[in-house]
Amino acid sequence: MKANKENITRLLKTARGQLDGILKMVEDDRYCIDISNQILATQSILKKVNREIIEAHMFHCVKEAFESQEPEQKIDEILKVIDKMTK
User: Fold this and answer.
1) pLDDT band for position 80 (cuts 50, 70, 90)
2) Residue 29: in which H helix or E strand, if any?
3) In whole numbers, what is the pLDDT of the chain averaged over residues?
4) Which pTM does this prediction carry?
5) Cα dist from 64 to 41, 60, 69, 72, 73, whole Å
6) Rounded Cα gap, residues 62 and 68, in angstroms
7) Three-state DSSP string of 45-72
8) Using CA atoms, how far apart are residues 4 and 20, in angstroms rounded to an integer?
């Protein structure tokens, strides 16, 4: 992985902490909208992490594939990820 591992790790640990908090909120029978807002905040972090990883992939792996004249597989991989992200 070519993305900034320190930043990715920090963000994922934050998301994990938020998930633990959401579980506690559910167990404590907290207000639905408060739980939903925490879920949205966690999703936002995960989207940011995914974007950073995909960006690093594009600037390293895909760039190298284009330089070696064999980009088809990498393009296909990116298209599949984009398809998943837009569902």
Assistant:
1) very high
2) none
3) 92
4) 0.83
5) 34, 6, 9, 12, 12
6) 10
7) HHHHHHHHHHHHHHHHHHHHHHHCCCCH
8) 24
